[in-house]
Design brief:
The complex is a heterodimer of chains A (about 55) and B (about 260).
Chain A: H1 2-10, H2 15-34, H3 39-44, H4 46-51
Chain B: H1 2-40, H2 59-68, H3 76-79, H4 89-123, H5 130-151, H6 164-187, H7 191-207, H8 221-252
The chains are: A mainly alpha (about 55), B mainly alpha (about 260).
């Protein structure tokens, strides 16, 4: 019973909201790795940004 | 469902990221290193000296250039440009390690967007397996790599471009519009949606990417052309693999959901 209750609580977030959350996470990673202009990030990801066609600098 | 999306994406992103790292170091990295030698002036190209560098008409220089093109570091010991490179072995290790890390990270990011799309398609009653995943991967390549490259070609280090913010806005708009357009073509049954898809696919290129007037490249056009071709070629392979692997994990985790 406890398990069932837990599962119900977990899936209380609508499927669409879950899709949006995961997509936002993915887009966020793309932004940080590819587009954020912090110089530490830029230097670390430099070769990847060039090699994946992100606008780099 | 979140767990299913995230686990499929992490496995597929990691696997595809490893393939990306392999292909990057096999095909792309040596062109980046070569172009950096032109950027810093260690090498000069007879047609491209613009940034105050003397034009190199010395045949020896040109021969060196030709010789180092297309060859990897195995040649750098004898070629005498090991020092001029400006990288010690330790920093090379760090640089390449970070490249590998970020490559896997980027493909995991793509994979999360991909599996979110899988979930959306499944909510609409479409089954996703490896074959569908393969098509999604190729569509992802078209949206994230090919369409932006039509306006903003993959750039070697040292390339002069328009304002970075303007280019990033155009890049994101192009990726979202192209992705949306392809999704409409694939999954909508309404006639008006095909028109909208066409408009979304065309709009970024009708508007046009922000570009600067004039040409400022210091690297030979052959190097830039090879770089752009290899970036797109390797990306197609990795995206196809990413979609296929993600589709496989997505289908095999269907029962657990």
């Amino acid at each position: 019973m406890t398990v069932t209750t837990k599962t119900l609580t977990k899936t209380a977030i609508s499927p669409l909201a879950q899709v949006l959350m995961v997509a936002a996470l993915g887009l966020g990673i793309m932004f940080v790795a590819g587009h954020a202009q912090s110089s530490t990030l830029h230097d670390a990801a430099h070769d990847v940004r060039h090699a994946t066609g992100f606008p780099c600098h | 469902m979140t767990k299913r999306m995230v686990t499929s994406a992490v496995f597929a992103g990691f696997a595809a990221g490893l393939i990306a790292v392999l292909l990057h170091f096999a095909f792309v990295q040596q062109l980046i290193l070569l172009s950096e030698q032109y950027e810093t002036g260690t090498l000069t190209h007879f047609g491209g000296g613009d940034a105050g560098q003397p034009a190199a008409t010395d045949p020896d220089t040109v021969t060196t250039t030709t010789a180092s093109h297309g060859h990897d570091d195995s040649q750098s010991g004898g070629g005498g440009h090991g020092e001029g490179h400006g990288h010690s072995t330790a920093s090379d290790f760090q640089r390449n390690g970070l490249t590998a890390l970020f490559m896997i990270l980027v493909y995991t990011g793509y994979a999360l967007v991909l599996t979110a799309g899988f979930a959306l398609a499944e909510m609409g009653g479409h089954r996703i397996g490896p074959a569908e995943g393969l098509l999604w991967g190729i569509a992802g390549f078209a949206a994230v790599q090919l369409a932006p490259a039509m306006g903003l070609a993959p750039e070697l280090p040292g390339t002069i471009g328009a304002d970075i913010t303007a280019r990033q806005i155009w890049w994101w708009s192009t990726v979202l519009a192209t992705g949306g357009g392809i999704a409409l073509l694939a999954y909508s049954k309404q006639v008006w949606a095909f028109g909208l898809a066409g408009a979304l696919l065309a709009a970024p290129h009708v508007i046009g990417a922000p570009n600067v007037q004039g040409y400022f490249g210091v690297a030979p056009p052959e190097v830039a052309a090879a770089f752009a071709a290899r970036v797109l070629g390797t990306a197609l392979v990795v995206w196809a693999a990413l979609g296929w692997i993600a589709g496989h994990f997505w289908a095999s985790s269907a029962q657990q959901d």
